[in-house]
């Protein structure tokens, strides 16, 4: 396991060296985790000119976390004492001490105030600052099989939580209660916690992209949209399904469901290594466009998942880039009709070579329209 | 209600005008909420030279949120279309259009990348950028009675959730389950949700300042530390209590509990308008120091609460400033003995004039050591 982190730091080193920097300061939490494993909040990572120069700088410890507790990795750790200030400043100071001349920082994460503090401690004569950009985010896009295994387990957990809920009585229960129930079951089945705020949307709320559960109660005849995910060893995935409550869906509900199902299937089938990200979005979007639903659609069909629930790549109309094998993404189109409700269907899949049978579906709960 | 927000913006206007800026761009979510009410994620607020020049700039809407839905306020709203970019850049552009010559931004929030994007759209000849600093955080410290009422209700909700848990069987249940149970009860009793990740710590985990609930089960003889809070209309408070499981606490448990109780009481009694923040910390800390627990104590005794669970003021040894009336704070000292456990007692109180009877205690669950 520790070799994985050292190997990732080494790949990052190659990238910023090629871009002209001698060291990098990684501060975005998910990026630090990717390169160093689970670390205390606020820790920053200095990636130096070789593995021996890499250093994790942690803020002062909680009351009982002993300094230097990391026994599973060759990465050196420095834990600051109370009042010692920003770990980023300490790390930059050390980089300058190692004769780094150009330190790449994450300008999309560091605030202006923190960056200014770095510069005040380190005049340009001593250390220049450059932008690391999204170099770590790019490294994170293609997952190794260990990462995919964590996502697969997380998806199983979410599937289990959902299937248990579907066996229970739903009519009369509030969106909030159902959401809390799902989150409890995620933890029961081994999740660290939910991957994101669980959404349960009934009746006119159904099909909304980001719906915060309310006290509305499930009623006969409702569409019920559920969106949830598990975090497992830091890896997050998502599943979304829409059901009908009661025995006989209305015609408009069947028609809308079939349409969104077709759009989502088109998106899934477009997941081929080498396909453009925007073409995956287009595949799903045009099914909905053709049926007259061009207005009010979500801005994107899906996105990558991993240590963050929302990461590169974006499956969106203006997205650049192409899919690689071993990239996990969501495919989650939907249609919401204000005042009536709607349908959202979301899977997490891993892009695989066509010769291996196409994308690996992680979220296997049926997508057939169930009447509950 | 809308008048409250306009009045707050007006107070902010006075501050940045005095500092030489003609407009301000507020981007930190809690600060935007304080000045404009609940807004969509990513919205930024431009505070201009008068109320008529104030503008909320929102990113593209979710699928069914109509643009311009705010009907309860005089604040103008602009909602961007898909692909229109960063609301902060749009807001800065508008500020320049209003002949602002110096725009104050929150340098402790905006990233280097976003700040650079603002500057590239707005050469210095057109609009200078300055630092707003923590002007909004400073305005937020003293609460009005409406805000205090929300905190009071949140505290009641937390007290209720805790008391219900104490009536249930605890032995044999895991920390995780108890934490989830508490969070469910918070929502049952009307909270928007938990104020922060609920902590339940048993046995050797008890008394730890930031403990993530594990699968350890409650056992006879354990200390059990619970830390939770409710979010109510955006306002967050916290309560922490420590109990003993079983009928007969050990002598070391009674002694440690009495000590932490005394420290916490000393902290509470130091909450007088005009007292230095560091003196409140000192009052609690010295009780623990005198008993030999100087090492490993938390860095601070407490902190302000409001729209964020952790805000100014800090009750810490190096803190500047003095208490005002109507400032809500936590007082939460504790001692944790690695491998044995410990005690943490946390209340949320509102500083009140001594003539009014001293600080108003919001979290009224008994602090007597209960054997459960």
From TrEMBL, chains A, B:
<dbReference type="Pfam" id="PF00557">
    <property type="entry name" value="Peptidase_M24"/>
</dbReference>
<feature type="domain" description="Creatinase N-terminal">
    <location>
        <begin position="8"/>
        <end position="142"/>
    </location>
</feature>
<keyword id="KW-0031">Aminopeptidase</keyword>
<keyword id="KW-0378">Hydrolase</keyword>
<dbReference type="InterPro" id="IPR036005">
    <property type="entry name" value="Creatinase/aminopeptidase-like"/>
</dbReference>
<dbReference type="GO" id="GO:0004177">
    <property type="term" value="F:aminopeptidase activity"/>
</dbReference>
<keyword id="KW-0645">Protease</keyword>
<dbReference type="InterPro" id="IPR000994">
    <property type="entry name" value="Pept_M24"/>
</dbReference>
<dbReference type="Pfam" id="PF01321">
    <property type="entry name" value="Creatinase_N"/>
</dbReference>
<dbReference type="InterPro" id="IPR000587">
    <property type="entry name" value="Creatinase_N"/>
</dbReference>
<protein>
    <submittedName>
        <fullName>Aminopeptidase P family protein</fullName>
        <ecNumber>3.4.11.9</ecNumber>
    </submittedName>
</protein>
<feature type="region of interest" description="Disordered">
    <location>
        <begin position="195"/>
        <end position="217"/>
    </location>
</feature>
<dbReference type="InterPro" id="IPR050659">
    <property type="entry name" value="Peptidase_M24B"/>
</dbReference>
<feature type="domain" description="Peptidase M24">
    <location>
        <begin position="150"/>
        <end position="352"/>
    </location>
</feature>
<dbReference type="InterPro" id="IPR029149">
    <property type="entry name" value="Creatin/AminoP/Spt16_N"/>
</dbReference>
């Amino acid at each position: 396991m520790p070799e994985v982190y050292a190997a990732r730091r080494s790949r990052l080193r190659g990238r910023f060296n090629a871009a002209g920097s001698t060291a990098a300061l990684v501060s975005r939490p998910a990026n630090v985790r990717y390169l160093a494993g689970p670390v205390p909040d606020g820790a920053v990572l200095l990636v130096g000119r070789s593995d021996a120069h890499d250093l994790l700088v942690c803020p002062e410890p909680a009351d009982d976390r002993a300094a230097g507790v990391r026994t599973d990795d060759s990465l050196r750790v420095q834990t600051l004492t109370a009042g010692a200030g920003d770990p980023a400043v300490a790390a930059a100071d050390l980089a300058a001490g190692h004769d780094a001349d150009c330190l790449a920082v994450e300008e999309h994460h560091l605030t202006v105030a923190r960056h200014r503090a770095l510069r005040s401690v380190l005049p340009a004569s001593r250390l220049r600052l450059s932008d690391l950009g999204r170099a770590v985010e790019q490294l994170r896009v293609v997952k190794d099989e260990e990462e995919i295994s964590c996502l697969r387990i997380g998806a199983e957990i979410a599937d289990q939580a959902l299937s248990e809920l579907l066996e229970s009585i739903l009519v009369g229960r509030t969106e909030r209660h159902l959401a809390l129930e799902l989150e409890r079951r995620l933890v029961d089945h081994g999740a660290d916690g939910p991957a994101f705020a669980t959404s349960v949307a009934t009746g006119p709320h159904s099909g909304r992209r980001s719906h915060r559960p309310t006290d509305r109660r499930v009623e006969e005849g409702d569409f019920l949209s559920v969106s949830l995910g598990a975090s497992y060893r830091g890896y997050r995935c998502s599943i979304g399904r829409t059901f009908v409550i009661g025995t006989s869906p209305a015609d408009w509900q069947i028609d809308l469901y079939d349409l969104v199902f077709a759009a989502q299937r088109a998106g899934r089938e477009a997941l081929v290594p080498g396909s453009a990200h925007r073409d995956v979005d287009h595949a799903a979007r045009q099914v909905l466009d053709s049926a007259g639903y061009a207005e009010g659609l979500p801005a994107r069909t899906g996105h990558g998942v991993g240590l963050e629930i929302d990461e590169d790549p974006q499956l969106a109309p203006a997205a650049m880039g192409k899919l690689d094998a071993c990239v996990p993404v969501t495919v989650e189109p939907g249609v919401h009709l204000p005042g009536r409700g709607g349908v959202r269907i979301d899977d997490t899949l891993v892009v695989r070579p066509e010769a291996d049978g196409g994308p690996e579906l992680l979220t296997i709960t049926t997508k057939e329209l169930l009447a509950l």
